[in-house]
Amino acid sequence: MPRDLVILECKECKRRNYTTTKNKRTLPGRLVKKKFCPFERKHTEHQERK
């Protein structure tokens, strides 16, 4: 199964807030999504971490 679990980390506060899945065949690079950070209290970019 090509879908893997990834952890998303806030680019501003560097805390790991979210988990999601991604298809490694179609997205070989790092996943970046705009999500709400409860520690910053605003929407920020969250990037995939290992």
What's the short story on this structure?
The protein has 50 residues and is mainly beta.
Strand arrangement within the widest β-sheet reads 2-1-4-3
Radius of gyration: 11 Å
User: Could you give a short account of the major beta sheet?
Assistant: 4 strands, antiparallel
Q: How many structural domains does the protein architecture include?
A: 1
Give the CATH level 1 class.
Mainly Beta
What letter string, H or E per element, gives the SSE order? EEEE
Rounded mean pLDDT score: 94
Number of strands: 4
How many H/I helical runs?
0
Helical percentage = under 10%
Q: What is the quaternary state of this protein?
A: single chain
